[in-house]
Amino acid sequence: MNDTPTPELNIASDLDKYARRYLKKMWVSKGCRFIAHRRLRERNHASQLVISLFSIGVIAASISLLVVSPDNKKLSDFISILAINASIFILVLSNLEFAKNYSVEAERMLRGAQLLSKMHDDLELNINQGSIAKETLAVIIEHYNQVLMDFEVNHEEIDYRYFQVNHPSYFDLEKLGLTKRIFYRGEYFWHIWGPYSMCIIVPPILIYLAIRYIPEISFFKV
Predict the structure, then answer these.
(1) Backbone phi, psi, residue 8, to 5°
(2) Residue 189 lies in a domain
(3) Is 8 within the bounds of a domain?
(4) What is the tens place of the pLDDT at every residue in 193-206?
(5) Are 52 and 91 in contact (CB under 8 A)?
(6) Is residue 54 within 8 Å of 86, Cβ to Cβ?
């Protein structure tokens, strides 16, 4: 979704229509940014959850080495390898997630959405009063453009699609069909939790398969 305002038209010729166009722009912009704020905030929570779970795993592995018999070298070596790999994973993931700065970007999205929301309400109030002065509209549009410049990091296309799904009648999404709308919702939640869910689910499965089927580390009779 491109929030770049449409080039100025002849406001005097159809001021009310022009004001309503900007009212819709602000409504979509603020809505997408509120959604982006929630998405980034949830991704930050998901990232912290994965890092916390792996940290707990490393601590548990370290403690388990204290109770494993020294004679069971195969098991102790395997636990040590798991702990080392998990520590490396935590370090890499922490650096990657820190670079993405989800929490800071989420707050910027929220701040931008709040400013746009206030401007939207002011413009809506002026329109509902029956008339809006050309100068008033010009000031509101100028503030709108300034907010877009101050918060130049825009929401992503996935935020816009999720906003569309939440307002299907406005975007005439009924033509897309129920399946497509369900897909858009699933895409949004997968974008937040999908990769981190895999980080939680896949490692235990791989560990079990390794223990079960690799003879060098197998603790079971095959």
Answers:
(1) -60, 130
(2) yes
(3) no
(4) 998 999 889 888 88
(5) no
(6) yes
Residues 6+ apart with CB under 8 A from 6: 21
d(CA 170, CA 164): 8
Contact 196, 46 (CB under 8 A): yes
Based on the structure, what is the number of domains in the chain? 1
User: For 11-66, what is each residue's pLDDT tens digit?
Assistant: 444 788 888 888 989 999 999 999 999 999 999 999 999 889 888 888 888 887 77
pTM: 0.78
Report the C-alpha gap between 38 and 195 in whole angstroms: 17
Q: How far is CA 41 from the centre of its chain?
A: 6
Q: Which amino acid is at 190?
A: W
Round to whole Å and give the CA distance between 189 and 168. Answer: 18
Is position 218 within any domain?
no
Q: What residue has token string 């930050």?
A: 44
